[in-house]
UniProtKB/TrEMBL annotation:
This is Phosphoadenosine phosphosulphate reductase domain-containing protein. One of its GO terms (molecular function) is catalytic activity. It holds the Pfam family PAPS_reduct. Residues 24-217 form the Phosphoadenosine phosphosulphate reductase domain. It comes from Rhizobium meliloti.
């Protein structure tokens, strides 16, 4: 097996018996990372606690992912801890995000509607549903200790990950993220799994997927989306995602509609709903394109009152967007928009502490 990467500080933590938690998803990289890390820890006599941690994302996960994690834990002879976001899985997060976006738009708390989906630049699917719940569990289990959190990140995976370091600490210095297979190739990952006698996730060699995370990932290639849609276990999720595409008027991957990947899985009503959602998306985009840059939402919006011309423009855009999406919007004329901006500015001003005399 190829040697793993480490740092002097990680080595010192291991020598001191620090807890080691390995995040596992059922995917090949976390599987190989766990196998290699345990072999390394056994070889150097690590005496601290060890465990595997799986963040369950709900209905978006492959059926086999939990089984793969349990088989890995059994093979390594270690506890598997499964953690979940208390308010639901990733699909529920996407749906709730759309409802929040629509509510904020209708009440003029924002200028444009925002996508409900996570994106490569805004991966709350990872931060909220994995990182946050895992670190919270580790801090609860190991209070006042420094903890090593192992991930299967590899530099060869992407341009973004090509700059990944071997180890890094969180802001408080309590949790050290260790990437022991950061320098491994995909072939070396599969070789480690095969050598162990365990089976890799069936999505790779049976379904033809190149990556295993969610069944339908916001970062998946078209071939991976097509392969995922071909599996009956994912059909209900596929229809649920497409329904949210149609309702929100936002495509699953920027300009790529998941509903176009496997339209044969949709009934006549769903196909008609998707077509209507696409038409509404075009109307929304054309209307929102008229909004000038100084009018767009920024943190702390509104920063000033709009001019009469800007208020008229925003009123017209909002009317078109609300008509296209069937939203129950207020603030559709100059006077009500001015009044709403004044209300928001006053509320913001009232929250600013005044300087002492």
């Amino acid at each position: 097996m190829k040697a793993i990467a480490s740092t002097p500080y990680i080595d010192a933590l291991i020598a001191g018996g620090a807890p080691v938690a390995i995040g596992v998803s059922g995917g090949k990289d976390s599987q190989a990372s766990a196998i290699a890390t345990f072999a390394h820890l056994d070889g150097i006599g690590h005496t601290g606690p060890r465990l595997l941690v799986h963040a369950d994302l709900g209905s978006v996960e492959w059926d086999a992912s939990s089984r793969i994690c349990h088989e890995l834990a059994s093979y390594l002879g270690v506890e598997l801890v499964t953690v979940r976001r208390t308010s639901g899985g990733l699909m529920e997060r996407w749906e709730a995000r759309w409802l929040s976006s629509a509510d904020r738009y209708q009440s003029l708390a924002t200028v444009t509607l925002v996508p409900c989906w996570s994106t490569p630049a805004m991966r709350f699917c990872t931060s909220e549903l994995k990182t946050h719940v895992i670190t919270a569990e580790l801090k609860r289990r190991f209070p006042a200790q420094q903890i090593i959190n192992v991930t299967g990140v590899r530099r060869a995976e992407s341009a973004a990950r090509s700059k990944a370091t071997i180890a890094s600490a969180d802001a408080g210095g309590r949790i050290w993220t260790w990437r022991p297979i950061v320098e491994w190739s995909e072939a070396e990952v599969f070789a480690a799994i095969d050598r162990s006698g365990l089976l890799a996730h069936p999505a790779y060699r049976c379904f033809g997927m190149t990556r295993v995370s969610c069944r339908f990932c916001i970062m998946s290639s078209l071939p991976d989306l097509t392969a995922a849609a071909a599996q009956p276990e994912g059909h209900a999720l596929y229809r649920r995602i497409v329904a949210l595409e149609a309702r929100s008027t936002f495509a699953f991957q920027g300009s790529r509609w998941l509903g176009d990947v496997a339209p044969h899985l949709l009934d006549e009503e769903a196909r008609a709903s998707l077509a209507h959602g696409k038409a509404s998306a075009r109307a929304r985009q054309m209307a929102e394109a008229r909004i000038t840059k100084p009018m767009l939402y920024v943190k702390g919006w509104p920063l000033r009152m709009l001019t009469d011309g800007e208020a008229d423009l925003l009123a017209g855009v909002r009317q078109e967007v609300c008509d296209a999406l069937g939203l129950a919007c207020g603030f559709l004329d100059r006077e009500s928009i001015h009044a709403r901006c004044a209300e928001l500015l006053a509320a913001k001003h009232s929250r600013i502490p005044t300087e002492a005399a």
